[in-house]
Amino acid sequence: MIVFKDVSFSYGEKKIFKKINLEIKEGEFVGVIGSNGSGKTTFLKLMNGLLLPTNGEVEVDGRKTHVQKQNWEIKKLAGYVFQNPENQLVGVTVEEDLIFGMENIGLSPDEMKKRMRKVLNFVGLRGFEKRNVASLSGGQKQRLAIASVLAIGPKYLLLDEPTSMLDPSSRKEVLEVLSKLRYSGKTIVMVSHDLEELTECDRFLFIHRGEILIDGSPFDVLKKVFEDDKLLEHIDIPDSVQIQILLEKHGVMKNKKLLNKHELLKVVMNFVDRI
């Protein structure tokens, strides 16, 4: 479990967060949303010790990020995938990049080979072992970045807008990998500006002005934002989600589960057929 206890954080004189109390349980898929500059990336970095709280404590499975020895253990438990894969990939070849992280945690050569096969199969890059990283497409680089983190064996996966720098084709590749991860039981915390990427989440955290203002199911969180004109200024709710909120008001969306476009179309067509 990831736990925030009265966590505050400042960059110099600038206060970013104030007294956050939060628990993220094992197996959850949590979407972190909010306006640009609201602190979403900072929040994610506090989770695995890349940043330390100004006040309060962050714990990952009982380990505290501000304790140096435990901070190293936390980085193995909570793997971080950056927005730009160029900031994460260090090897000349795909194989070298994967080996780098595994060597750092002291795995044997046999175990490294085993994990390499497993993660490359998982992200669809098997056979790319000798490929130069620079020759990969944007989507392939991001999938490699995810594979490099998975090879270390994290319990929690932290993703900072992993598709924001990708073209539509590459974005689809990465989202397919994330969907597989979601159903593998991995605990995932993902920041995204595109709410349609987060329809499989169990929970949304809406960050606003230094606090987690709304915490709940994706549908309920977005409904509260949609119904508050001041909050609505800070986030772009897709038309498909707005349609779902309006359908719910008319008793069509009874289960209040955030749907992707294809699921929404089925609901609308079923409703039309009944009229």
In CATH, the topology is named Rossmann fold
Which range does the strand content fall in? 15-25%
Question: CATH homologous superfamily name?
Answer: P-loop containing nucleotide triphosphate hydrolases
Helix content: 40-55%
**Largest β-sheet summary:** 6 strands, mixed
How many domains make up the 3D coordinates?
A: 1
Specify Rg, calculated over alpha carbons: 20 Å
How many helices? The count is 10
Q: Write the element-wise H/E pattern from the N-terminal end onward.
A: EEEHEEHEHHHEHEEEHHHH
Structural class: alpha/beta
* Structural shape: globular
The strands making up the biggest β-sheet line up spatially as 6-7-8-3-9-10
CATH class: Alpha Beta
What's the average pLDDT? 91
Number of strands: 10
Question: Under the CATH scheme, which architecture would be assigned?
Answer: 3-Layer(aba) Sandwich
Span from first to last CA?
A: 47 Å
Summarize the structure.
This protein has 275 residues and is an alpha/beta fold. It is 40% helix and 22% strand.
Structure characterization notes:
Helix content is 40%, strand content 22%. Helix 3 packs parallel to helix 5 (138-150) and helix 4 crosses helix 5. It has 10 helices and 10 strands. The chain has one domain (2-217): P-loop containing nucleotide triphosphate hydrolases (Rossmann fold), CATH 3.40.50.300.
